[in-house]
Amino acid sequence: MSLAHGRPYLAIPGPSVMPDRVLQAMHRAAPNIYEGALVDMVAGMVPDLARVARTEGNVAIYIANGHGAWEAALANTVAPGEKVLVCATGRFGHGWAEMGEAMGIEIELLDFGRKTPIDAQAVKEALEADGAQAIKAVLAVHVDTSSSLRSDIAEIRRALDETGHPALLMADCIASLGCDVFEMDLWGADVTVTGSQKGLMVPPGLAFLFFSERAAEVRRAMPRVSRYWDWAPRADPAFFYQYFGGTAPTHHLYGLRAALDMIHEEGLEAIWARHATLARAIWAAAEVWGEGGPLTLNVAEPRHRSHAVTALRLGTPHGARLREWTDRQAGVTLGIGLGMSEEGDPDGRGFFRFGHMGHVNAHMVLGLLGTVEAGLSALGIPHGRGGVAAAAEVIAGSEPRRG
Ligand SMILES: *Cc1c(COP(=O)(O)O)cnc(C)c1O
């Protein structure tokens, strides 16, 4: 017997759950892309998008996924042969470095492993060692979705300011925007990259770049920027065709309009608080389970954990078996371990992840945790009793009770 029939829950860290309101907004006939309602809608939408990143800077929208956003950020600011400093706390930091390498950019890599966030002191030392100021940008992933580590972008800004180094600060907020607190202007990021399919609750296919005046100046001094990635023609939605480098992503834009309405109706602070509480509920359950078995949270320190995604380790063969069980028996799809190879487990099959970004509420998280607890029991995987009860206590607003 399978208990999976009913509404499925894709609890992977992107693409995330899409609200019915977003889907319904997309369900319509093709609009005119040259004038009229769609053009007006986008012009009005850009400031609402910028508010999610907490910036008064520039916005560029691409038909692309997160990898496109990575490439766009570099294509506008760093020429082949120039250098960037990449801070890696998991697979996505390395991925951005590989993207730069493929573009002929020289990479200096600071690898912080998969357990600890970016150490701003190490960034400062790398900048101090760069006497010629050859480093053109510091690339930092705010939340690395593979490890679920969250790093402190404001601290990296301080490292740049204290050394007086002119490098741009670029933040990958693909996983974190609209989930974890992020303040682009206050924290001093020059470029922020994100995508539509995580905290923004829209299908994959839109990439967003937010950039400061300083970054725009660096762009203007570039010898050449490839046409599609050039952000300059994308700065004015009045020129609609150029704005999207061709045909507009019409239906994604309707979906995005609906998602931004939802975000601003709830309020960004309330969204951050919701994600924080749901994340604490997940940690509470995981900590109880771990008291009686092999389950561990990948990030030991709560203040370094993302509120959008949680990476957990069960070891082999339990991790893969649990994912298989929740999918087949309960209609809940968990995220795979990504870039989490370890000795005896080259594919990271002992790891799994919960995506809790965007359109996620208390009953979904309690359902997710209840399903995992059932799976642990069904598969005979040792675990502490009472994980879901501990999560329910967090949801109820009190500290989790033990024992
Ligand atoms: C999802 C993600 C990416 C990659 O985005 P794609 O849309 O898969 O290209 C990059 N960085 C982070 C932090 C992500 O979470």
UniProtKB/TrEMBL annotation:
Organism from which the protein derives: Roseivivax sediminis
Keyword entries, A-Z: Pyridoxal phosphate, Pyruvate
Residues of the Aminotransferase class V domain: 73-283
GO molecular function: alanine-glyoxylate transaminase activity; L-serine-pyruvate transaminase activity
Chain positions recorded as substrate binding sites: 353
Pfam families: Aminotran_5 (PF00266)
InterPro entries: Aminotrans_V_dom (IPR000192), PyrdxlP-dep_Trfase (IPR015424), PyrdxlP-dep_Trfase_major (IPR015421), PyrdxlP-dep_Trfase_small (IPR015422), SP_NH2Trfase/AEP_transaminase (IPR024169)
Family from the record: Belongs to the class-V pyridoxal-phosphate-dependent aminotransferase family.
Gene3D superfamilies: Aspartate Aminotransferase, domain 1, Type I PLP-dependent aspartate aminotransferase-like (Major domain)
Stretches that traverse the bilayer: none
Record protein name field: Alanine-glyoxylate transaminase / serine-glyoxylate transaminase / serine-pyruvate transaminase
Cofactor(s) this protein cannot do without: pyridoxal 5'-phosphate
Record-listed N6-(pyridoxal phosphate)lysine modification sites: 198
A single BP term in Gene Ontology: glycine biosynthetic process, by transamination of glyoxylate
